[in-house]
Automatic annotation (TrEMBL):
Principal subcellular localisation of the protein: cytoplasm
GO MF assignments: prostaglandin-D synthase activity; small molecule binding
Name of this chain's protein: Prostaglandin-H2 D-isomerase
Highest taxon, organism lineage: Eukaryota
Length: 153
């Protein structure tokens, strides 16, 4: 149900890389497709400088519906991914616990089918992130890629 293209609208995290990089972050697209055995293939593009970098991940389903796990080959970190709420048509709220040998961190992502999302959804994302113990410092609504602030209102 989560398959197709999403925009990452909001990102909240208490990890160090997020603190360092958050001023550079922009909205990116994520394309999700389901494999035959019910896992999710996730292709994300990340803004890197002025280019987008593609990254493929395979989220393995667990016994609990809406929960997936992923281990980063690059960092060896384990990700426990939970789809918190979604209506499939409009938005999805995803929480991830990331554990590696240096400790654990929390990440919350707000995905949207379009580049705009209602204030209620944004508010819910902020609220939920706070419930996960994240501070307002940790919470970011991403600016749209390649659009200047002066552009369309």
């Amino acid at each position: 149900q989560l398959t197709g293209r999403w925009y990452s609208i909001g990102l909240a995290s208490n990890s160090n890389w997020f603190k360092e990089k958050k001023h550079l972050m922009k909205m990116c697209t994520t394309v999700i497709s389901a494999t035959a055995d019910g896992n999710l293939e996730v292709t994300s593009t990340y803004p890197k400088g002025d280019q987008c970098e593609k990254r493929n991940s395979l989220y393995t389903k667990t016994e609990q519906p809406g929960r997936f796990s992923y281990t980063s080959p690059r960092w060896g970190s384990k990700h426990d991914i939970r789809v918190v709420e979604t209506n499939y048509e409009e938005y999805a709220l995803v929480a991830t616990q990331i554990s590696k040998n240096t400790g654990t961190s929390t990440m919350v992502l707000l995905y949207s089918r379009t580049k705009e999302l209602s204030p209620e959804r944004l508010e819910r994302f902020t609220q939920f992130s706070r419930e996960q113990g994240l501070t307002d410092e940790d919470i970011l609504i991403l600016p749209r890629t390649g659009e200047s602030w002066r552009g369309r209102g």
